[in-house]
Amino acid sequence: MSKIYISPSILSSDFANLENEIKKLENCGADWVHVDVMDGHFVPNITIGAPVVKALKRVSSIPLDVHLMIENPEKYIKDFALAGADIITFHYEAAKNKIVEIIDLIRSYNVKVGISIKPNTKSEEIFPYIDIVDMVLIMTVEPGFGGQKFMENCALKIKEIKSQLNKNIIIQVDGGINKDTAKICRDYGATSLVAGNYLYTSSNMKEAIASLR
Ligand code: DX5
Ligand code: ZN
């Protein structure tokens, strides 16, 4: 059985207490910290920018898993890499004809590369790239907000991508993950799970994180 990397999304955390929130995640067994970056264009919401990632880096001893839900990701990769992102995931839909360029750019900073697809994007569209990234992020909700319902049909993409891989990369799922949907994803072969609402509404973060493994 491969390791499942649990990446709690701080989108649902208390933004007035981010240092404590990170410490809590570390103490509760999180593997990574998932940072949802939204620009108000690629998605309707605006959230966190590179200066906040830089501040998080100062207080985090676990890797920062940065999910860019932004247009023109190539313009901002340098900022997020220098801010201390350990993994940068960009959206296929925002990358247009610059996909390989963006992958190379992220790698040039010695940062791990993820590529993500929204619910309406077919897995076939990213098959040409899956062997040149470190992670594929499959969205199981429309990106933009936490607390939405898991779209089970999107989880089938885990299998589709797995069947095309020639090497071992991480398959991450993001959106509507809880104890039950996590199991569906693990059974299909997911190796990393992002969770926001489920973890932050639970009464025991440690148990909630453990329940996703
Ligand atoms: C959605 C974000 C997710 C979100 C997950 O656009 O990419 O990371 O915070 O939150 P839940 O687990 O609440 O769906
Ligand atoms: Zn995310």
What binds here, in terms of ligands, is: D-xylitol-5-phosphate, zinc ion
Shape: globular
Total beta strand runs: 8
CATH class: Alpha Beta
**Fraction of residues in H or I helices:** 25-40%
Can you name the CATH architecture?
Alpha-Beta Barrel
Strand order of the largest sheet: 1-8-7-6-5-4-3-2
What series of H and E elements makes up the topology? EHEHEHEHHEEHEHEHH
Relevant CATH superfamily: Aldolase class I
Average residue pLDDT: 97
Q: How does this structure look, described?
A:
This protein has one domain: Aldolase class I (TIM Barrel, Alpha-Beta Barrel). 35% of the residues lie in helices and 19% in strands. It has nine helices and eight strands. An eight-stranded parallel beta sheet has the order 1-8-7-6-5-4-3-2. The chain starts with a strand and ends with a helix. The site of D-xylitol-5-phosphate has 22 residues, from strand 2, strand 8 and helix 8.
Short characterization:
By secondary structure, this protein is an alpha/beta fold.
Label this structure with key terms.
TIM Barrel; binds zinc ion; 213 residues; binds D-xylitol-5-phosphate; 8-stranded parallel beta sheet; globular
Question: What's the helix and strand layout?
Answer:
Layout: E1 5-8, H1 18-27, E2 33-38, H2 50-59, E3 64-69, H3 77-83, E4 87-91, H4 92-95, H5 99-108, E5 112-117, E6 135-139, H6 152-164, E7 170-174, H7 179-188, E8 192-195, H8 197-200, H9 205-210
Parallel strand pairs: 1-8, 2-3, 3-4, 4-5, 5-6, 6-7, 7-8
The structure holds D-xylitol-5-phosphate and zinc ion (ZN).
Residues 9, 11-12, 34, 36, 67, 141, 143-148, 174-177, 194-198 line the site of D-xylitol-5-phosphate.
